[in-house]
TrEMBL record:
Coiled coil: none annotated. Belongs to the binding-protein-dependent transport system permease family. InterPro entries: BP-dep_ABC_trans_perm, MetI-like, MetI-like_sf. This is Carbohydrate ABC transporter membrane protein 2 (CUT1 family). It is found in: Cell membrane. It comes from the Bacteria.
Length: 289
């Protein structure tokens, strides 16, 4: 009888009114959050095919592809999206390469400046872009890099490095040093061990850093808006202004269609990267327990 009492008490507590009420409120909160995400998505999908789209979420009376036909032009969509792919791709590639070289000594070596440098990296992750744009703009004027596509890539790379270094170091710490020691015994240098041993084993981590930096650069509006002037160099994040006319007029249908097209490269990147990220680290059996 005494052994069954705790089980009975546990069943009663699980079915108590207080526990049921908490579950109900949790379900209500999750439903509210889901609605907050689904309503804008529903508006996006419906307005893109609505010939008379407004800011309201409604089922269109008739479906049309005129909004997509209006935005599928080189000046409106193709050139800005190609600029966005180049801007985000170059930024992510340079950031990953630089973060690998910076994270390797932080992960493998110890010095008296180690902790201070890590604190400096963490501090760099807290700096908002808007707080440093005035001095950056002055530097770009002095160096003659205004309206320079590659100069903008360099600045986006520098602003993404602190978080990328921090993430890359954490992924690199998971790779056993003993694997590199075996390569060193065979005569490999530190850079060769990094290239042939460490990098292949942390490819999922590199993919995470690449996608993280790519998404940051892809959705960055403020930096290209300030540093790039020529319309042919503007990425899609800034060309979205073309759908906002004078006196508050907005082409809602074209804006929704452009937003769908703007999100397609990111979705493709996520699908491709998820296959690599899902593989986790290939360290099974590499070190004897």
């Amino acid at each position: 009888m005494s052994a069954a009492t705790p089980v009975t008490a546990a069943r009663l507590s699980a079915a108590s009114p207080a526990r049921g009420a908490s579950r109900m409120w949790a379900s209500v909160s999750l439903a509210v959050v889901a609605i907050a995400f689904l309503v804008p998505l529903a508006w996006l999908l419906l307005a893109a095919f609505d010939p008379s789209a407004t800011y309201q979420t409604r089922i269109p009376s008739s479906l049309t592809l005129d909004n997509f036909a209006a935005v599928l032009t080189p000046q409106t969509t193709f050139i800005p999206i190609m600029n966005s792919v180049a801007l985000a791709g170059l930024t992510a590639t340079l950031t990953v390469l630089a973060s690998l070289l910076a994270a390797y000594p932080l992960s493998r070596y110890r010095s008296r400046f180690h902790r201070g440098f890590l604190y400096a990296v963490l501090f760099g992750t807290c700096l908002p872009i808007t707080a440093i744009m005035v001095p950056v703009y002055s530097v770009f004027v002095f160096l003659g890099l205004l309206d320079s596509f590659f100069g903008t890539v360099l600045f986006l790379t520098a602003s993404s490095l602190p978080m990328a270094i921090f993430m890359t170091k954490n992924f690199m710490d998971a790779v056993p040093v003993s694997l590199e020691e075996a390569a060193w015994i065979d005569g490999a240098s530190a850079m060769k061990a990094l290239r042939t041993v460490v990098v292949p084993l942390m490819r999922p981590g590199i993919a995470v850093v690449f996608v993280f930096v790519f998404l940051q650069a892809w959705g960055n509006f403020f930096v290209p808006f300030v540093l790039l002037f020529s319309p042919e160099k503007q990425p899609a994040a800034t060309s979205i202004y073309t759908f906002f006319g004078q006196f508050g007029s907005i082409a809602y249908g074209q804006l929704a269609a452009f937003s769908i097209l703007y999100s397609l490269p990111v979705i493709v990147l996520y699908v491709l990267a998820s296959r690599l990220i899902g593989g986790s680290f290939a360290l099974a059996g590499s070190v004897k327990g």
